[in-house]
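Appendix B: a complete holo record

For completeness, this appendix reproduces one full record from the ligand-bound portion of the collection. The bound molecule is S-adenosylmethionine. The inputs are the chain sequence and the ligand SMILES; the output is the full three-dimensional arrangement of the complex, encoded as structure tokens. No fields have been trimmed.
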Amino acid sequence: MQGSSGVAQPVTMAEDNPRPLKFSSRGVGFGMETGDGEASYARNSATVQGGMLRDTGHHLTQAVHLMSLPFESQPIRIADFGCSVGANTLSWADLTTQSVLESYRTKASLATNSIPEIQYFFCDIPSNDFNTLFRDLDSKGETRPFFSAAVAGSFHDRLFPKGSLHIAISTWSVQWMSKIPEAVRDVSSPAYNKGRVWVDGGSPVVAEAYAQVHRQDLLSFFAHRAYELAPGGLLFVTCPCRAEPGRPEAQTRGEFQKASPFSGMLEDSWAELVAEVTILLHAAFGAITCHKYRSNSFQS
Ligand SMILES: C[S@@+](CC[C@H](N)C(=O)[O-])C[C@H]1O[C@@H](n2cnc3c(N)ncnc32)[C@H](O)[C@@H]1O
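The structure of the chain with S-adenosylmethionine bound, as generated:
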């Protein structure tokens, strides 16, 4: 792997036997908008993130049916990593548990054992709105066919005992990075990403700096889940991707931008915010302070 400095750097796997590191600071602070107000994740995730469920949910059901579900170990333990809050969270929980129950009902006739109990873990960073999630879980007085629990911690750390999970899912979450690459904020680095808050439109070294953090993040995610899953367990992951293979910075404008406008929107929002603050500062303190603020805003 090439580092942001252009020097080859090894990708390091997490330890073979990673110890639990709950409540680490990694990933903390990047949670979704809480509650169920107008700007909340719960009210704004049905279209795009919900589309992922409509498009890929059947793959999960299919994968569960292909599993050889254990008849001897009880309960069946399922965890959703990066569960967030809102309709998608509950729909993924319903789909996963229903698929397990269906599969058992089909196969139970072949075995003497009965349908097992299910324990479902909602995992996200500590600032996730678990209160709204658990309030919604039985807001309509519905009884769901599983026992639920919250696990607060980063999915870049180990969150469960060895071999304890039968199914792990993660939907629209592993694209979240554990940190901003240091080089893109370092004015002395060739990967300094002046004037931008994201990889799009950046130079190849900027793209590589982001890619390096992502590789490390994905490696730690997979290494920890491999440790937590029981033999024969299922890991189901969905996340948004770029439309074409190739280097990210080559796909960030033009046709790609039209097809996937998210990152452009981030840049535009940041530029608007800076412009608004600039105007306010201009009104209050005059042009010199305003110019200074604008320069600083692009350095942090
Ligand atoms: C866009 S939401 C996806 C929610 C839901 N799974 C869905 O399909 O709608 C991404 C979630 O990942 C969580 N997340 C981001 N980084 C995380 C980390 N390191 N550990 C645990 N959760 C994380 C965020 O807090 C957020 O709730």
